[in-house]
Each structure stands twice: as C-alpha cells, then as structure tokens.
C-alpha cells in the first residue's frame, strides 16, 4: 500500500479538528499540541531516513548495528523514565534490554515466523523496535519500584542481613515486587484485549493487506513475546545491577541509586 504526498496532506488535515476544539475553548494545550506535532514529525523524518538507508543497504552488519543503537537508546530512555542515574545503571539496563530483545526476537523470527535469515533488515528491525518500545514503558516503572525500594527499605535489607539471611534472600521481596510490576501491564493488556485495549497490530496488518488469521496470529505471538522479553529484561537487569549497587560485603554502596543523573 503506497500513500502519495497529497494523501499525507489530507491525513494531517484531520489535526485541525482537535486544534480547533482546543482553540474554541481557549485551552492552553493548543501550543503543546503544535509543539508535539512538530517534534513528532521531526523525529519520524529522522527515523524514516535512517530506516530507508538501512533497508537500502540491507547488510547484516549495518542492520545489527542499527538494532543495537535502537536498544541503547531504549535503555537510556528506560533509565531516565525510571528517574535513575544513567552513569550507574546504563550497563545493567542495557544488558537486560539486549538479552530480552535479542533472545525473544530471534526466537520469534527463527522458530515462530520461520525466517531463514533473521538478521534481514525487514524482519529484525520491526521486531526489535516493537520489543524495545514495550520494554521502555514497562521496565521503567518496574525498575523504579526496585531501586526506590532499595532506598526506602535499606534498613530492612541490613536488618535481614544481620540476622543471617543471604543478600539474595534479603532482596527477594523487592525482586518479587519488581517482577510483578513488570508482569501486570502485560497481563492487563492480554486480559482486556478488545474490551479495553485495541489490537493495534491486528488492525494495522489487515490495513496493510495481510489475511485475518495471519494478522491475528502475529498479534498473539507479539503479545506473548513482549511479555517474555519484559520478564527476561527485568531479571537480567536486577542481577547485573548487583555488581554496581552492592560492594564485596553485599552492602549497599554509598552512591545511592535513586539520585538522578544531572
């Protein structure tokens, strides 16, 4: 399905409706709407240009490098949205994002979709983009709970260590809360599908010309893939972060994880 320039123009004219409503009621959101639209267009143009070049080259090395760049940006956004220090936690979050996205993404492409070359740009990049975008939203909230818990419940952590518990046992409560927080959005999305959540992938694929059952299968598989990727990512991030948050004696380091990077 191809869209001409004039069709783009007709599509953007729909933006006049919400803008007029905001103007009619003298809402202060009108300026923010215009700024958000301009920013969105700018970012999408940059992304579109990069995707066009990557797809035109279609070399596995460049494709993999671009996928790594997407995951690195996703890790940075995850840390910033969780209000955590990038300098201290970029590596753990990047490790979690990399593991979750690549393991689940390659599994889906290779075993589920049946792609012979999962590093082909038209297969790898969309899957990496979908999984990374999902991890930003879900894991930022989950990791915020985990690291804020280390701050506010540090006395409980030291108390449990002093009473003979291993550090893994002392952190078990926070681990469970973090994993549950990462799982809840996925469970909610699957439980409210068609009732409270629109299956966007299903409708998008049908709009692009895919068959009903093919679009349905992709929607279901990607939902499960997002769920699995978020679980893997959170667990890997918490495990790797121990080296950055705990010293050799399993004590919390003085550089608190809740301090936001300047």
From TrEMBL:
The chain crosses the membrane at residues 6-25, 37-54, 60-77, 89-111, 123-147, 193-214, 220-240. Coiled coil: none annotated. One of its GO terms (cellular component) is plasma membrane. It is found in: Membrane. InterPro entries: UPF0014_fam. It comes from the Bacteria. The keyword Membrane applies. It is a multi-pass membrane protein. Keywords: Membrane, Transmembrane, Transmembrane helix. Belongs to the UPF0014 family. This is ATP synthase F0 subunit A.
């Amino acid at each position: 399905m191809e869209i001409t320039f004039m069709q783009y123009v007709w599509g953007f004219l729909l933006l006049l409706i919400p803008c007029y409503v905001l103007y009619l009621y003298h809402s202060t959101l009108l300026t923010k709407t215009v700024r958000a639209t301009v920013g969105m267009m700018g970012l999408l143009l940059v992304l579109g240009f990069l995707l066009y070049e990557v797809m035109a080259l279609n070399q596995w090395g460049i494709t993999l490098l671009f996928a790594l760049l997407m995951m690195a940006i996703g890790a940075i956004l995850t840390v910033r949205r969780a209000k955590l220090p990038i300098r201290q936690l970029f590596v753990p979050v990047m490790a979690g994002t990399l593991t979750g996205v690549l393991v689940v993404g390659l599994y889906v492409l290779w075993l589920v979709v049946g792609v012979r070359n999962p590093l082909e740009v038209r297969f790898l990049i969309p899957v990496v983009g979908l999984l990374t975008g999902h991890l930003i939203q879900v894991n930022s909230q989950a990791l915020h709970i985990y690291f804020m818990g280390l701050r506010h419940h540090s006395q409980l952590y030291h108390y449990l260590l002093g009473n003979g518990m291993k550090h893994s046992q002392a952190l078990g409560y926070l681990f469970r809360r973090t994993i549950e927080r990462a799982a809840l959005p996925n469970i909610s999305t699957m439980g409210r599908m068609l009732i409270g959540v629109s299956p966007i992938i299903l409708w998008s694929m049908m709009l692009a010309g895919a068959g009903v059952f093919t679009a349905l299968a992709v929607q279901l598989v990607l939902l499960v893939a997002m769920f699995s990727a978020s679980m893997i990512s959170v667990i890997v991030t918490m495990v790797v972060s121990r080296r950055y948050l705990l010293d050799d004696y399993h004590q919390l380091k003085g550089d608190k994880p809740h301090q936001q990077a300047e």
